[in-house]
């Protein structure tokens, strides 16, 4: 039985690097366009807006643009970290357990930092914390007078 290791062979590693670099280039292009749109929206804010509906629409678009910029910044950081792991030889190893990340997972998500088992455990922990926070908030609200 053949064992699968996360250390991709040189050709696969080059392909994954090219994929990461292409993703980074695309996200940087989209980010530049979004920043330009945010600046243009800010210029419009100084001008008179016809009605409240237009103002609400402009505010919502601005909020969406800023949220997209935050997402893009996070994605760029993940890509840069993956490229750094490639350079220092730790690419393809789970940051939690140290096991190899299967090549198929890396092909699907080249910036992956965890094996599926650890990623699922992390997501379950985040979900549990979110639910626990929601329960605490619901309990606090239920205990308010009135």
Summarize the structure.
With 146 residues, this protein is mainly α. 73% of the residues lie in helices and 0% in strands.
Instruction: Please tell me the overall pLDDT.
Output: 87
User: Any idea of the CATH topology of the largest domain?
Assistant: Four Helix Bundle (Hemerythrin (Met), subunit A)
Q: List SSEs in N-to-C order.
A: HHHH
Query: Which spans of ≥5 residues are poorly predicted at pLDDT below 50?
Result: 1-6
Beta-strand percent range: under 5%
What does this protein look like?
This protein has 146 residues and is mostly helical. It folds into two domains: 10-114, Four Helix Bundle (Hemerythrin (Met), subunit A); 115-146. The protein has four helices and no strands. It has helices spanning 10-45, 52-88, 103-108, 116-143. The termini are far apart. The model is unreliable at 1-6 (pLDDT under 50).
Kindly list the characteristics that best describe this protein.
Four Helix Bundle (Hemerythrin (Met), subunit A); mainly alpha; 2 domains; 146 residues
Topology:
Elements: H1 10-45, H2 52-88, H3 103-108, H4 116-143
Helix pairs in contact: 1-2
């Amino acid at each position: 039985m053949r064992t699968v290791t996360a250390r991709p062979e040189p050709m696969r590693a080059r392909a994954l690097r090219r994929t990461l670099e292409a993703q980074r280039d695309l996200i940087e292009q989209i980010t530049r366009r979004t920043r330009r749109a945010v600046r243009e929206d800010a210029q419009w804010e100084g001008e008179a807006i016809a009605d409240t509906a237009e103002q609400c629409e402009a505010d919502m678009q601005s909020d969406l643009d800023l949220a997209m910029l935050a997402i893009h910044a996070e994605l760029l950081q993940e890509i840069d970290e993956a490229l750094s792991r490639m350079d220092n030889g730790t690419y393809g190893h789970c940051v939690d357990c140290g096991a190899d990340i299967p090549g198929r997972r890396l092909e699907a998500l080249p910036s992956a930092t965890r094996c599926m088992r650890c990623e699922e455990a992390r997501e379950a922990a985040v979900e549990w914390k979110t639910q626990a926070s929601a329960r605490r908030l619901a309990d606090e609200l239920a205990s308010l007078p009135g």
